[in-house]
Amino acid sequence: MDYRQLGDTDLFISELSFGTWAIGGAWGKTNDQEALKGLERAMAAGVNFFDTADVYGDGHSEELLAKATKGKEDDIYIATKFCRAGDIHDPNNYSRAAIKAYCENSLKRLNRERIDLYQIHCPPFDILKDGSVFAVLDELEQEGKIRHYGVSVETVEEGLFCLKQPNVKALQVIFNIFRQKPLERLFPEAEAKGVGILARVPLASGLLTGKFSQTAQFEEDDHRHFNRNGDAFNVGETFAGLEFSKGVELSEQLRWIAEKRGNMTRAALRWILDQKAITTVIPGFKSVKQVEDNLQATSVPSFSDEELKRLKDFYHTSVHEHIRGVY
Questions:
Q1: Is 100 exposed, middle or buried (0-12, 13-18, 19+ CB in 10 A)?
Q2: Across 315-319, average pLDDT
Q3: Which residues form a coiled coil (predicted)?
């Protein structure tokens, strides 16, 4: 496992880390014992960073991380997020009292005294532009409740705004072969500012595994069923904003990336790791097998310049126009 510095912070985190949305809920059936085994397997392989949120299973993924990392609090870094447990459009949701309550509740579930990276969880742009939320996070940092803070954003514009905030140390963005827009301006500016990048939705909700057919069905409590058209939250969080059947069609055209890399999953993650602005990629998982497969991405061949150009051209000519929502 290789480690990369998170922006200009003192944290060096595993280049491949894991998100815990799937083991918390909203991805169909979950199994806590399998989830804990998966977390253990990841840590045994050198993974020292996990991303979660207070709304993943109503805090359940935070509780699972507390169990898995007990006694390893100084060695395993945890990033969590806040704001979506309330009305994200209500300014009172970002008051000093509300944010501190969110923080204390996460600390309690995580069984920790400090959060390594505390992130605003995809708030409306107006909330970011108001700026008061950053002042409260500065206070939490000064109080020692959080080590660093960042923002999970939906759009490049929001990300560029956050880069202007002096103490934002990380941006979490949707980034994968189907969502290459951040490469153009956001990533170079983040690098220049010393801000880390966490790549989420790296497999486009599974499209980039190449395992789905046009007839694939998802359980009712799986966001790939109830949010496939953005009915519950931002459409970009599900299938990277692509309509499912178009996504399956496009993924079929990418089967070549698996050549010499084992499978499409490893190849898709490897492509992200090959982008120099990336600090870490955070695929989700529900089983030990998925953890092990994702880990293999760190050891498969990188993409050649010719392959990178081919994928860039593919995005601009075949994918970009089909992505729904503002990004």
A1: middle
A2: 97
A3: none
pLDDT class for 28, splitting at 50, 70, 90?
A: low
Q: What is the mean pLDDT of the segment spanning 173-195? A: 98
Is 245 a domain residue?
Answer: no
Asked if residue 26 has pLDDT above 90, the reply is no
CB-CB contact of 241 with 324 (8 Å): yes
- In sequence order, which residues have a C-beta less than 8 Å from that of residue 135 and are 6 or more positions away? none
Q: Determine the Cα–Cα distance for residues 10 and 307; give it in Å rounded to an integer.
A: 34
Answer yes or no: are the C-beta atoms of 128 and 150 closer than 8 Å.
no
In contact, 175 and 199? CB cutoff 8 Å: yes
Distance CA 180, CA 71 (A): 39
Tell me, yes or no, whether 158 lies in a domain.
yes
Domain assignment present for residue 43? The answer is: yes
Percent of the chain clearing pLDDT 70 (strictly above)? 99
Closest CA to 224 of 29, 49, 26, 5: 26
Which structural domain range is residue 83 located in?
A: 3-206+263-304
Both tokens assigned to 258? 């698996």
Q: What is the mean pLDDT of the chain?
A: 96
228 found inside a domain: no
Instruction: State the amino acid at position 323 in one-letter form.
Output: I
